[in-house]
Amino acid sequence: MQQWREAKARHPDALVFFRVGDFYEMFFQDAEDGARLLGLTLTTRNNGAAAQVPLAGVPVRARDEYIERLLRLGRRVAICEQMEDPAEARGIVRREVIETITPGAVLADSLLSERKNNFLVALVEAGGAAGAAGAGGVEGSAFALAAADVSTGELVATTAPPGELEPELARFEPAELLLPQSWAEPAAPLAARALSALGARLTFRPDWLFDPTVAAAELRRHFRVQALDGFGFQDGDEPLLATLGALLAYLNEVQSAGAANLRPPRLERPGAAMALDEMTRRNLELLEPLRPDASSRGTRQPGTLLDVVDETLTPMGARLLRRWLLRPLVLADSIWRRQESVAELFEQPALRRRVRAELKGVRDLERLAAKVGAARVSPRELKALGDSLEPLPALQALLAGAASPLLAELAEGLDALEDVRDLVRAALVDDPPAALTDGGVIRPGHDAELDELRGVRDGAREFIASLQARERARTGIASLKVGYNKVFGYYLEVTRSNFERVPEVYERKQTLAHAERFVTPELKEWEAKVLGAEERILEVEARLFAELRRRVAAEAARLQDTARRVAVLDVLAGLAQVAERRAYVRPVVHTGYGLEVTAGRHPVVETMMPREEFIPNDVVLDEEARIMILTGPNMAGKSTLLRQVGLIQLLAQVGSFVPAAAARLPVCDRIFTRVGASDNLVRGASTFMVEMNETAAILHGATRDSLVLLDEIGRGTATYDGVSIAWAVTEHLHERIGARTIFATHYHELTQLADLLPALVNYNVAVKEVGDEVIFLRRLERGGADRSYGIQVARLAGVPRSVVQRAAEILRDLEGAHSGGAVGLGRLGRRAGSAAAAADQLSLFLPADPPVLDRLRRLELERLTPLEALNLLAELQAEARGGAGGGR
Ligand code: ADP
Fold this sequence. Notes:
Elements: H1 2-10, E1 15-20, E2 23-27, H2 28-38, E3 43-46, E4 52-59, H3 63-72, E5 77-82, E6 95-101, E7 120-126, H4 137-140, E8 142-149, E9 154-160, H5 165-170, E10 176-180, H6 192-196, E11 201-205, H7 212-223, H8 238-253, E12 266-268, H9 278-283, H10 305-309, H11 315-325, H12 332-347, H13 349-359, H14 365-373, H15 379-389, H16 392-399, H17 405-412, H18 418-427, H19 448-475, E13 481-485, E14 489-495, E15 507-511, E16 515-519, H20 521-553, H21 556-581, E17 588-590, E18 595-600, E19 617-621, E20 627-631, H22 638-654, E21 662-666, E22 671-675, H23 687-701, E23 707-711, H24 719-737, E24 740-744, E25 760-770, E26 773-782, H25 790-796, H26 801-818, H27 834-842, H28 851-858, H29 866-883
Parallel strand pairs: 1-5, 7-10, 9-12, 10-11, 17-21, 20-24, 20-25, 22-23, 23-24
Antiparallel strand pairs: 1-2, 2-4, 3-4, 5-6, 7-8, 8-9, 13-14, 14-16, 15-16, 18-19, 18-21, 25-26
Helix pairs in contact: 7-8, 11-21, 12-21, 13-16, 13-21, 14-15, 14-21, 15-18, 16-17, 18-20, 19-20, 25-26, 26-27
The structure holds adenosine-5'-diphosphate.
């Protein structure tokens, strides 16, 4: 218990898994937590004079399973091992915490998902003493981030400009965030609460750990360098240093074996990638569908862009693609570079097929390399690593003639690692066991001593086998058998009926129901030879394997570099594959303004219907037509079109081909999307508030170079408010921002903006009316929709007939009253009546009555002369026309 107390004192925030024989035991509060979280039986143990100690344990062989569950629950686990062999220890076995397993630093496959990175991210406020800055707030501050994935050896540091922390963080999908202690205070620059929304575990460490000077020392120590200039640090990079240093210090603290193979940090400068805010990631359903299918947990989510465009063949390719989608490029040159290579692999199907055939042979080289470095590799995994190197020379040869710069560069620097492959090939058998202790790991012929020992063992086994015939002859017992079991070793088995013929020298060892088992001095002697040889064999195998592992580990940096090149190649070839499979085209990406998609399709929706059923549409947004107001009834396909444009633009900036017949696309600095509150209910909170927050973020963040996709604004409030806000937002986008915009809306009133704003055009997704029915044509047409067809859609949805009929009646009345209902523009009501009053009460369709109407109402007709009436009519007409900018 004293050992346990010491371990716990050092790791107060972890559950201590305290090794006792074949179990990891938890005590006291840990036991209570563990029992509750893992469904274990809570027992107590009498601790001498002291009170009863709560106790719960998990079997050692099931440990990863339990740890996984604890990590998922955001807990961490300190593994306290027996440091001596209990058989040899004098007194109490020495125990030590050898590792703390924390969500952000895991190596075991069972705790990782293959197609996704597992990042630990450290964060400080940039500019100012780390963590100390009290003011600022998220909006105004820049932040520095460092991210490490110990399972792959990646280490990245970057800066998030003011306002872009969330997208920067999200692109790493952190499993754990490391923060300065002071951030736990409510007054911190970023309340920890805001960060916990990311779903990452929050870990706090003292602020001084984030001090740039301390951090720089940590970095130098870790990478064994005198100066850090070689890594590309510049003046003003102190915050980057601070996060990197804190990250390394923390990894060393938890003694993550993976820390040893972290590569030197890669510094990402802001400005190379597009920040994708949460709305956009969510609304465009990049990695997760808006309505997740509960049955499909895991990293391949149907209904997402990732799922459709992921044709990668290696885990590192899959991980890289995921990150590329979250990090579209914003420099035309870098987009062209990727495009060029995708195009080459697209245009040369034979090359692509052969490249992909070779890629299939490459396993998770990146993580295997990290495991070798961390001395956590099984014989089977080391073999898998060796096998993964087999296709490399062929890949190198295939790419030797590549014309596109990126492919050529990948090929040129590709280290085929033949020496490492040969090492593994020569040392390991073709199909090694998972555990070293199972034996039979090292290939015959590799080591003379091992071969000799195996010869001795096999000879002795053969001799024992031959005993059966000899003893049968000697004793005349025809049924005598030689056998072996784990507890008693080799034996001679004689059935009960033959007992009287058993010779004196036979020594009884075990009694069964119908037989007895015996040994003889001769058998024991040979058995000792077998066992002795086997023990030596395991020792020699262990030594040879360790040696092999060390030699391969020495090449970890080369392995990781190759793994990265293979990953890029895999993604490029995968994108070329999607392009062919789904008939995508190479977009012309240019640095101008115009966005022009010919026969574009929604990459995900089109895969959900039979081929040819998705109706392609053309979209043009240019200087003359910057804003598209998109009207049309519910279900017409407005949201689909809107997202389609966003996804096409995003794919283009990732370097991919796009689902269209042709496309000319600009380079956007940001893509903003927001989707109607009605689609957003899951978020809880006041949906209108959320809606306005999102709108505010877009109006603040968008520039002329952005693409803004709005799917309904103002639906969360009363109609008049809603139309007014939508109206004003559109004006602002048109007049002040100038961003390319598609605005899908129910408010067909907005179509009248086209008369006022020169670069605004109306489109609608066409429907055809046949009798009372609407047929969705899914075709984009010039001009606004005049109606919402809500009643027809209600009928389609199965609203009871009587309700639909009654709604149609009410609508006729209301339309009669307001005749189309324009917002403060032309088209006055033709007939006032009781329905108009009803309309006002219902507060449908129209904002406050136009003044003309008001005057009409107050008119006392009986007092007017015909001439007065005529004059008044002229006046009213002028007012109606002039005040509304000319009407139609
Ligand atoms: P809206 O936003 O106008 O209410 P949606 O965009 O949600 O309509 O589209 C409704 C449904 O219509 C989609 O789920 C999809 O199945 C289908 N759809 C949309 N666009 C197309 C298209 N271009 N071709 C074929 N089907 C489409």
